[in-house]
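Anyone up for a design puzzle?
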């Protein structure tokens, strides 16, 4: 019975995915490498990690990549987490050095990373040893996975839909207000970013590594399609 309820819930969520209009371009980026990334720790919504030197350099490279697009960036949205804000600050600094100022960013609370509760701050290797069954469940069935009596991925999918709703409807009358070359820039996280891409495409498959984002990777989303931009460009999918 529980399986049937989950199937109905997830089917409904997929059917109501908020897909970006064909008239708009979105560049979505993950933050730079943090000390937690390097150490193999769970970050989630724990906001104590910070960019490493490598992460700073990744953000500088991302800013340099975005520089030719900078005059077309009309809106900027960012997670409230320090690692995302640091990344955006560096990107803005690189771009402003060329004489272009990006629009003021809007911090969207729901763009924060997936919340993994009591696992946050812990080494992944320790969790795998101490909680082998739970760790296996998280890796093999993330949609059905529960932690501390809560469903992290279900919560994340809900926040992804809310985030797209904010981004799609913020500060303009209709999608016709945007030129085809106008860009909305989004800086967020790995798990959330993967779900943002999938939601825009009407897909729901968290285990699919095709949508995984590396640190400071940038992808473009438009017209129900997506492609990788930086550091390696791919074909439209």
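Challenge accepted. My sequence:
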């Amino acid at each position: 019975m529980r399986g049937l309820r989950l199937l109905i819930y997830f089917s409904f969520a997929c059917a109501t995915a908020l897909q970006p209009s064909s008239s708009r371009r979105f560049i979505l980026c993950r933050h730079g490498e943090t000390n937690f990334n390097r150490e193999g720790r769970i970050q989630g919504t724990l906001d104590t990690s910070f960019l490493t030197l490598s992460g700073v350099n990744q953000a500088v490279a991302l800013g340099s990549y975005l520089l030719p697009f900078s005059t077309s960036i009309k809106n900027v949205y960012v997670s409230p987490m320090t690692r995302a804000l640091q990344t955006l600050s560096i990107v803005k600094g690189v771009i402003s050095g060329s004489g272009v100022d990006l629009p003021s960013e809007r911090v969207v609370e729901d763009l924060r990373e997936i919340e993994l509760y009591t696992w946050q701050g812990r080494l992944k290797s320790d969790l795998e040893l101490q909680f082998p069954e739970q760790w296996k469940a998280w890796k093999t069935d993330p949609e059905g996975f529960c932690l501390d009596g809560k469903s992290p991925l279900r919560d994340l999918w809900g926040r992804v839909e809310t985030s797209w709703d904010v981004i799609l409807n913020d500060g303009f009358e209709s999608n016709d207000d945007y030129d085809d070359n106008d860009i909305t820039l989004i800086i967020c996280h790995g798990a959330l970013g993967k779900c943002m891409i999938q939601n825009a495409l009407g897909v729901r498959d968290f285990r699919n590594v095709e949508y995984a984002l590396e640190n400071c990777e940038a992808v473009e989303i438009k017209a129900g399609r997506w492609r990788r931009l930086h550091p390696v460009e791919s074909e439209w999918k």
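A detail worth pointing out: The beta strands are 25-30, 73-78, 106-107, 183-188, 218-222, 225-230.
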